[in-house]
Amino acid sequence: MNKIITIGRQFGSGGRELGKRLSDELGIRYYDKEILAEIANQTSMSEEYISNIIEQAPKRSYPITIGNTFAFSDNYYMMQMQSVYLAQDKIIRQLASDSDCIIIGRCADYILRDMNPCRIFVYSSMQSRVERCITRAAEGENISEKEMKKKINEIDKNRSKYYEFYTGRTWGDINNYDVCINTSDKVIKDLVPGIAKLLG
Amino acid sequence: MNKIITIGRQFGSGGRELGKRLSDELGIRYYDKEILAEIANQTSMSEEYISNIIEQAPKRSYPITIGNTFAFSDNYYMMQMQSVYLAQDKIIRQLASDSDCIIIGRCADYILRDMNPCRIFVYSSMQSRVERCITRAAEGENISEKEMKKKINEIDKNRSKYYEFYTGRTWGDINNYDVCINTSDKVIKDLVPGIAKLLG
Questions:
Q1: What Å distances lie between residue A147 and A109, A124, B10, CA to CA?
Q2: Which of A72, A86, A92, B154 has the most other CB atoms within 10 Å of its CB?
Q3: Contacts with B, A 125-154, CB within 8 Å
Q4: What is the value of ipTM here, to two decimals?
Q5: pTM of the model
Q6: Which segments of A27-169 does DSSP mark as H helices, in order?
């Protein structure tokens, strides 16, 4: 069976960088936004729209026919969300079957649960995440610490709801992961050799 | 500053074994029950009694003078608990100042927070913990899975309350640790080289 590593990560914790560097260290494939492109290919939706669907928390956690009103637009959105999730599920399974790889986010730890992936969760303190995000912000993008904190909280709230909606599990709960790494005050590059060795 | 590693661990997760093996791998000291002996030495209580105090959850989370009754025995017990904690605090600080070391449990992650320890939390699934405990039970000690599960839950509940009482933090919350390791279905020995490398 292929060596599969999934990485869940708090926004701004450096999880993506860790995944990329780990893939270089281990010489295995790395999938993040590539999955969006493939979903776009399979569903005929734009990558941007798909990204928006994935980054937004599901708006309903119950069938939309419950209640007195029937909102067509909500129903349509839910159907598209479902299509995206199903395409994503299929693509992730395919990628994991094809070769050893690292997959960032997208409930891959849950989708691939039968393939016994090594499930990593990357997190860090809010202060550390704010600093990392501000350092990495595009040139000319002025965003205050307060605004960045708000943005981080919003994105993570959506990730958490998305994960819970599709897996029935709690995002960031240690029981769903094999290794949880706190990147506060750490240089991501320095963590990689140890994690690579730990994963065997 | 000395290299200090603290290990919090769920009962039966193999955290103690991991700490011992890690100390061999890194060639640094390891403290677990040795701390009890030193507390006994400083407080004139027996090791067994001290162990009992530490393994029991604090009985009060509010000053015992609140309420209409005043129980001398409770008060006395609380004073002894406090003496044990203060002795433990002092010993742990001393050990960490003396040399590089690994300290198991005992709120050491919190006590040594100014010394920037590497804080590990070791956990695993209930099934895995039950199996590990039953395998390691003394010969002739027959304990059913159900009884073992009850024992594990009880010990961890006490550890959790003890930690929360003295630190104001949540035991097992990822934010209190640098690395969390799930030992379910893992051979502890195999995890050690990777963790050693990760800690630098």
A1: 31, 18, 38
A2: A92
A3: 125
A4: 0.88
A5: 0.90
A6: 33-43, 47-55, 72-98, 108-111, 126-136, 145-167
